[in-house]
Design brief:
Helix content: over 70%
Strand order of the largest sheet: 1-4
Shape: globular
Order of helices and strands: HHHEHEHHHHHHEHHEH
CATH architecture: Up-down Bundle
CATH class: Mainly Alpha
Structural class: mainly alpha
Length: about 325
């Protein structure tokens, strides 16, 4: 195929992933709301998992094709872009006020699971046992989130309730959910196939393509959710979406590894993994300054992200 065809298919795949993810999140979250589930629980679980669904489907298809670099590059790159690009962009639009609990609980959990992944990857492979460990940590986080969310203050619950809407038609939400799943599968297949082809045509590694183009593309649902929340000044949704999605991404990598073991390139351990840890740890001092992420700090996150992308190609 020509480079124009590859790029076109890649863009079509990203569009399908974006709208597939959006439909899945809307359908699943509204259906959960109709069933009477607490809005905060939906935000921290259904929405977080839904916005990570593109990463899961792309990683699963790439793993089954034997493209481990696309799997790991997508997860690591998405977690970096979620903090550097998405959280930074949201803070530029509107300073984000932070709950102390996020600094004390959710962010340390994200860092801890990232460290576990880094340690498990040192044998240059993530097998079914290592994958089961990562996925178990995700399940534990989900259980914790459920019980902890029941204690959220009224204002936070109202934010999530407004964000989810009050649609009552069950059949429409099921249709959205099914449509979203179809879009994700079709989009993921197009993205993986065109990414592999573009890597060959451009003469770069599948890892670089995955960490940059694929990772940003699969993070579009998080970007969309964060921008909408920033416009509405729903700060808890912005940070909960980013941190929750990062934790889910790591757990999703575990699930994919259980289905199909993944090989780890040594270069990932020397550069991309440490950068992911750097961004994860950087969140704490930024959030602690006045318990908010200011526009200046948002700009700093974006600058660091751009520097990371530049270093990949250098």
């Amino acid at each position: 195929m020509s480079i124009v065809t590859d790029i076109s298919l890649f863009v079509v795949g990203l569009v399908a992933l974006f709208f597939g993810g959006e439909s899945l999140v809307k359908g699943a979250s509204r259906l959960a709301r109709i069933l009477g589930i607490n809005p905060v629980v939906i935000g921290l679980t259904v929405v977080a998992f839904g916005t990570s669904a593109p990463e899961f489907v792309v990683c699963l298809i790439a793993a089954l094709k034997g493209s481990s670099d696309i799997v790991l590059g997508n997860i690591v790159g998405s977690n970096i872009s979620n903090i550097g690009l998405i959280l930074g962009s949201a803070a530029l639009m509107s300073p984000i006020f932070i709950q102390i609990r996020l600094i004390k609980v959710e962010v340390p959990i994200m860092i801890a699971i990232s460290l576990v992944l880094y340690a498990l990857a040192w044998n240059l492979g993530i097998g079914r046992v290592e994958g089961a460990v990562l996925f178990s940590l995700l399940i534990a986080f989900g259980v914790y989130s459920y019980f902890d969310a029941l204690k959220e203050p009224y204002q936070v619950e109202e934010e999530y309730k407004e964000f989810l809407g009050n649609r009552k038609e069950v059949w429409k939400q099921i249709a959205l959910l099914v449509l979203g799943l179809c879009g994700l599968v079709i989009g993921a297949r197009l993205v993986v196939d065109s990414a592999i082809s573009m890597a060959k045509l451009f003469g770069v590694s599948e890892l670089v393509i995955s960490v940059t183009a694929v990772a940003v593309g699969t993070s579009l649902p998080e970007l969309s959710t964060s921008i909408v929340a920033a416009i509405r000044k729903e700060h808890d949704i912005i940070v909960g979406n980013v941190i929750g999605s990062n934790i889910f991404n790591l757990g999703i990598l575990g699930l994919v590894s259980v289905i199909h073991p993944i090989n780890v390139s040594p270069g990932l351990l020397r550069f991309e993994f440490p950068v992911m840890l750097f961004f994860s740890v950087l969140v704490i001092p930024i959030m602690k300054t006045g318990h908010q992420i200011s526009r200046i700090e948002g700009s700093l996150l974006i600058i660091f992200y751009v520097a990371f992308i530049a270093m990949l190609f250098v």
